[in-house]
Write a structure and sequence with these properties.
This protein is α/β, with parallel strands linked by helices. It has one domain (45-308): Rossmann fold (3-Layer(aba) Sandwich), CATH 3.40.50.880. The protein is built from 8 helices and 11 strands. The protein has helices at 3-20, 22-27, 43-54, 69-80, 100-104, 133-144, 163-169, 293-308, and strands at residues 56-62, 86-92, 115-118, 148-152, 181-184, 190-193, 207-213, 227-233, 246-254, 259-269, 272-277.
Length: 329
């Protein structure tokens, strides 16, 4: 190799190393160095966490009931979670025969949640199962200070001798001697049945029936048609209680009592809001009532309002008519 050629080769290599190859380096960048994972910001996860933090925190209480409480809780979650509004947690009580020590370890942190959905019924008689005293006091404090509660179906059977609870539910599965009853009379107004008079609590077989909106200006029922058909449900009558600070939302004509019976209502207890619904009966039946569009929308809106005092979940255009049920999978 000539000295001249060698000099050209050396000069070319030097110029390339000083920048002539930059364009090629841009096209083929060196691999990034993997950092400590704990120091890497992950916007997607942060956004997901932010979204979770914005959800309404729901605590479902279950564990015993004269209904199929496990399936009921599962079906409630299946209604709530697809709405995109709720973060649902379940707290299951110890079984009825559990020891006092086991019950002492069950103490839900009610204040950590926006709304409590009560799917618990320890029995409607004087020997019905109570929660531990500390839990009951914590629950009362939570509601008085502004918490929200949804009592689901047979939950209004429970706690016969818990005075504060009876005030919260307004009406329960009680005997006529326990308190007054409430119906909607022929003029469309609330009428009170005196303590000790009239029918006691009861129901017959499940059937379709018409739900009539009583309080049309409430955020929960705003946008509902005046009448809509609910599917294969138990229509209870003769509920009794203090019936104070109550706002009835729906009623239905009972072919058994031959009266308009309240179906769901709200009670103000301290600064809290308590919504009680007679809907949601489930033993071992197919459970068509849980597939009712009207029932699902009502439950979602009731939970949202009880938690936040606002309702954003819409009433869909496809909604049950007054003479026909509407079901969805």
């Amino acid at each position: 190799m000539s000295f001249k050629y060698l000099l050209v080769l050396i000069l070319t290599t030097f110029l390339y190393s000083c920048g002539a190859g930059n364009e090629q380096n841009k096209k083929n960048p060196a691999p990034a160095t993997i950092q400590d994972p704990s120091k890497i910001a992950v916007p997607t996860s942060a956004a997901s966490q932010s979204k979770v933090d914005d959800l309404i925190k729901v605590l479902i209480i279950d564990g015993m009931n004269n209904h199929n409480w496990k399936d009921t809780t599962s079906r409630i979650k299946a209604i709530l979670e697809p709405s995109g509004l709720f973060d649902v947690t379940v707290s299951t009580t110890p079984p009825r025969e559990a020891t006092a020590e086991a019950w002492s370890k069950w103490h839900p942190s009610f204040s950590s949640y926006d709304v409590i959905l009560n799917n618990f019924n320890g029995g409607h008689s004087s020997n019905g199962k109570r929660w531990p005293e500390a839990v009951e006091k914590s629950f009362e404090k939570y509601v008085k200070e502004g918490g929200g509660v949804v009592n689901f179906h047979a939950a209004n059977n429970a706690f016969l001798n818990w005075d504060a609870y009876n005030e919260m539910i307004g009406l329960g599965w009680r005997s006529p001697n326990f308190g007054q009853g409430v119906i909607i009379d022929e003029t469309g107004r609330l009428a009170y049945i005196p303590k000790g008079e009239g029918l006691g609590a009861g129901h017959k077989e499940n059937h379709d029936f018409v739900m009539t909106v009583f309080e049309q200006d409430h955020p929960i029922t705003d946008g509902f048609p005046e009448k809509w058909m609910h599917a294969m449900e138990q229509l209870s009558h003769g509920q009794r209680g203090p019936a104070k600070n109550m706002t009835v939302l729906h009623y239905a004509w009972s072919k058994d009592s031959k009266r308009n019976e309240p179906i769901d209502w709200i009670v103000n207890y301290g600064d809290g809001r308590v919504y009680t619904t007679m809907l949601g009966h489930l033993m071992q039946e197919e459970g068509l009532n849980f597939h009712s569009v009207g029932f699902r929308v009502l439950l979602i809106r009731a939970l949202q309002w009880t938690a936040t005092e606002q309702v954003t979940y819409p009433v869909p255009e496809a909604f049950p008519a007054s003479d026909a049920v509407l079901l969805e999978d």
